[in-house]
Amino acid sequence: MNDLSTPVAFTPTPNTYKSGTKPIWCPGCGDFSVLSSLTKALAKLALPAHDVAVVSGIGCSSRIPAYTSCYGFHGVHGRALAAATGLKLARPELTVVVTGGDGDGYSIGGNHFLHACRRNVDLTYIVMDNHVYGMTKGQPSPTTEPDWDSKLAPGGTGIRVFHPLVVALASGANFVARCYSSDPNGTADILAQAIRHPGFSFVEVLSPCVTFRPEQKEWKHLARPAPVAPTNDPEVAARRLFGDDGFNIGVLYRGERAAYVPHFADERCDAAALAAEFAR
To answer: Can you list the alpha helix ranges (DSSP code H) found in 147-216?
Structure first.
């Protein structure tokens, strides 16, 4: 018989974190690879699935919680970071990962993005950026090039693009990186670093939309390792970002700010007394 008093080593594989639900993304979508990278990162960190929560908003990439065996919360448009912040503060022992896209995170969720960076709660935010609203049939997103011509925006929007890494750094994110979905192992390594790093970690993943932006298949010729090592100096990181063309892959910034930890009172509230207060 096995000695049940002897702890059994937990040696997970990426499949440990996959649910039985089959992804329904378009064939060739970069989000398949991002899901694979996330499960590889969790296996690398050997985190029990019941100690991980994956939170999302709305969009193609926001389906990820359903495809994992971790706890999941599929929220409303743009509010994933708000929900995740509340969860992490209430259950600090959980590893909280937030997944979303450029439309969900930078448009209706833009304000939450700024303040999540500023608060520096210990979360990891993975944004799959394809420069388009894929689920709602190809509208321009905040990161869409101003001259991208489409049926919904003939001739392009003419609006300057949103620069998420610049905004994240300026707003106080403690870890800033960029990955490319066609490099699943490299992405997994960076995601593991982001999850392990204290404070708010932001990882942009270039994830081509083969349906509405088939030209993004050419990203494989543009993405390359960043020519510089990560820095802990935000001024150095800022100078690099303002000269960045959006295709440098790797960790840009590792900050040293302590993660935000709330100071809750030790007092316990009696539920019956609280109910009586509201009944007055």
So the answer is: 164-171, 184-196
Half-sphere exposure of 125 (CA within 13 A, CB side): 41
How does DSSP classify residue 5?
T
Instruction: Place domain 21-279 in its CATH homologous superfamily.
Output: Thiamin diphosphate (ThDP)-binding fold, Pyr/PP domains (3.40.50.970)
Q: What is the spatial distance between Cα 14 and Cα 24, in angstroms, rounded to a whole number?
A: 19
CA pair distance 194, 34, nearest whole angstrom = 14
In this structure, what DSSP letter does residue 223 have?
A: -
Separation between Cα atoms, residue 241 and residue 204, nearest integer Å? 13
Ordered by start, the domain boundaries in the chain are 21-279
Q: Which two tokens stand for residue 194?
A: 């982001």
- Residue whose pair of structure tokens reads 């304000």 in the numeric block: 111
Q: What is the pLDDT of residues 197-247, one digit of tens each?
A: 999 999 999 999 999 999 999 999 999 999 999 999 999 999 999 889 999
Contacts of 277 (CB under 8 A, 6+ apart): none
* Encoded tokens for 2: 């096995």
d(CA 219, CA 30): 11
Quote the pTM value: 0.90
Contacts with 256 (C-beta within 8 Å, 6 or more apart), sequence order: 174, 232
